[in-house]
Every structure is written in C-alpha cells, then in structure tokens.
Design a protein that fits this description.
five-stranded mixed beta sheet, globular, alpha/beta, 22% strand, 277 residues
C-alpha cells in the first residue's frame, strides 16, 4: 500500500478533531503524515500518541478562509497521495485502504456520509455506526464508476498531489462559506478528472446548521457572484431560492442578485435545521 497523507482544517471543534484523530489511529493503515490547518488559536488541540501530526496556524484575516486553508494543508503534505477529511468526520477503519486501492492520477475518490445526531465522546466508528443516518440525496449515488462532478463535496476525498496541482487547487478568491467546493468540481471536470465513490463511509458529527444557511449570508452572496462571474451560472440555487423566499434577496431574469435586507435575529433563529444532515 502506498504512503499517504491526511489533511484536515479546524476552527473550534476540538472534541470533533479529537474524535477524528482517534478514528485515524484505529484505521487498518496509518498515514505517513497528518497536516492540521488551524484557523484559530491552536490551544486545546490534543494529539494521540503515535500519530505524526503537524499543525499550521492560518495567517488569513478572513473569518473562514476555507479554500486557502485546504490549499495550505495539501501543499504541506509529505507524500503523493492525499486524503482530505472534514474535521466533523469519523472515518471507518477500512476507508483509507479502499481509497488508496483505486486512486489514480485521473480520479478523485470520495465516500458516503452517515450523519450522527450528536457529538460523541469517542471516535470509535464501530460503536457509533448504528446511530447514524444516511443523507437522502447521497445514499443512491452509484459506487465504483464515474459520477457527475457536481456530486463532489469536500467532506472526504482522496487525490494525488500532482492531480491537485494540475487542477490548480481551491480558488482562494472564494472566501468564507459557499461555492468553493462546486468551483473545485468545475475545475477538475474541466481538467478531465473523474469523481468516483468507494463503498465506504464517514460518520459526520452533529453541529447546528441553518437551512438555508443565513448565518453565512454575506459570504454566500459574495461567492455566488464570484462563481457566476467565473462560470456564467449561479451556484447554490436552492439556498439562494431560500433567501429569496425569505425576502432577503431578489434574483432577476438575468440572474442578478440584489440584496434587499440582511437576515434578522428571528430569521436566524427560525432557520436552524432539525436534521442531522
């Protein structure tokens, strides 16, 4: 089995990170190195003994520099095979081996998410798997064959470093939350790279979320406009339609977004989703 690196980024989420690292250590094969990019003060990060972890503190001034942080972590890796994991994930013991078996220069591999209704006290995959539920939009995606590139999500993916460089990495002109994943999918599709699901899973640890995500209203609008400028189409259309239905924005026939008002405290409170996904 080839050497591989693991990358994750974190802001807050110390319990989630501890659970992720617990699960990584319990994997059937271990990474050569683990790169953690911290988007806040690194205090409170605990590393299990025996894991080769490097911590990088992001110097970006933006509140949530997701694209830049991912690029920083992937650039720092010490091997040619990279597995990026969202800090909210707990990986199955077999996931790394399954991903590496099928990883090629012309592919990006990903896996299926299952959603926990809690932040658990442990990262023991076997103890938690029965508590998780699938995402209704993702459980029927076929395994082992190329799928639509817009099914990409940076929750979990494997890529070779030279492939990442060919694609150009994540576009750092997308700051904050929204569209940077879809933009990356468009770029790897343009480069002829295919997206394939392996038959394995990550457990997503619960966190409060808004539907639509009005808590990220400003960056979603900014990134939607940036994406439209780049690709001539509006992304995140379900979220934008949700904003429009709430009276926050107006989208005209030319797909121009006009902000009518910022989300109110009441709208923020009432948009919290009851679902774990």
């Amino acid at each position: 089995m080839p050497k591989f690196s693991v990358v994750t980024i974190v802001k807050g989420r110390r319990n989630q990170l501890a659970n992720l690292l617990y699960a990584v250590k319990a994997s059937t094969i271990l990474p050569y190195d683990i790169q953690i990019v911290c988007m806040d003060d690194p205090d409170g990060i605990t590393i299990p003994e025996g894991l080769p972890v490097s911590i990088h503190v992001s110097s970006e001034t933006h509140e949530l520099p997701l694209a830049a942080a991912r690029n920083k972590g992937i650039t720092a890796t010490k091997t040619d095979n990279i597995i990026f994991i969202d800090v909210d994930c707990i990986v199955s013991p077999t996931l790394f081996a399954r991903m590496l078996t099928g990883l090629k220069p012309e592919t990006i591999l990903t896996a299926y998410p299952l959603y926990l209704p809690i932040v658990p006290d442990t990262g023991n995959y076997g103890d938690l798997q029965h508590k998780a539920v699938p995402h209704p939009a993702r459980e029927r995606i076929p395994v082992g064959q190329p799928v639509n590139h817009l099914q990409f999500w940076s929750l979990i993916f494997a890529i070779q470093k030279k492939t990442f460089k060919t694609i150009g990495g994540f576009d750092e002109s997308f700051t904050g939350y929204g569209a940077e994943d879809t933009d990356f999918a468009m770029m790897f599709h343009r480069a002829g790279v295919e997206l394939i699901f392996v038959h394995d899973y990550v457990l997503h640890q619960y966190h409060d979320k808004h539907d639509p995500p009005v808590n990220h209203f400003n960056s979603i609008i900014q990134n939607a406009r940036r994406y439209q400028q780049k690709w001539n189409v509006l992304p995140m259309q379900r979220w934008l339609k949700g904003f429009e239905d709430m009276g926050l924005i107006q989208i005209d026939e030319a797909d121009t977004i006009t902000v009518r008002q910022k989300p109110t405290d009441s709208q923020l409170k009432n948009s919290i989703s009851p679902h774990p996904y």
